Amino acid sequence: SQDSYTSLLTIMASTMIAQGGGMWRMSYQPFCREQSNVGSVQELLPNDTNLGMGAGVEFVENLCRNCLDNNVQTLDCLGFPIEGKQPGDAVNPVHIMNRARAFQHNIGHATKALRRLHETAGGVVIYLDVVSSEENRAIAVPLTWYAERIPSSTRSLHIVVSSRCVQKVDGCQEHAQLMSQYLGDMFPRAKMDLEVAPTSGTAWTRMMDASILMCPPSTACLLPALFRDASKRTHLVDMAGMYLWFRFAVREVTKTFHLPLELARDVSKMEVTAQLTPFLVQVPTEDSRECLSLRGKLGSWQQDLQYAASAQYLTPLNRFRAFPDWQATPDMPYRESTTYKWVDNVCPVELINKQGFCHAMQGLGLTRLYMVGDSLSLQMAMSFWKLLGNEDEPVLRPTDQEFKQWMRFQWSRTIDCGGGFNVELQFTRNDLIDSNDDQNFNFDKISDHEFNCGVAEFCMPWMRQFSDYQGGGTLLLINGGTHVHDLDSYPKVVSNFVNFMNGHQRPNDVIMFRTTVPGHENCLMQNAKPLSNHKEFEASLIADYRSWHLFGPYNDILYKAVQERNDSKYNKDKSPIQILDVYPMTILRQDGHLSSPPRCSTCREDDCLHYALPGPIDWWTHLMYSNLMNLAAVKKQEDQPQATK
Question: What is the pTM (predicted TM-score) of this model?
Answer without folding.
Answer: 0.85
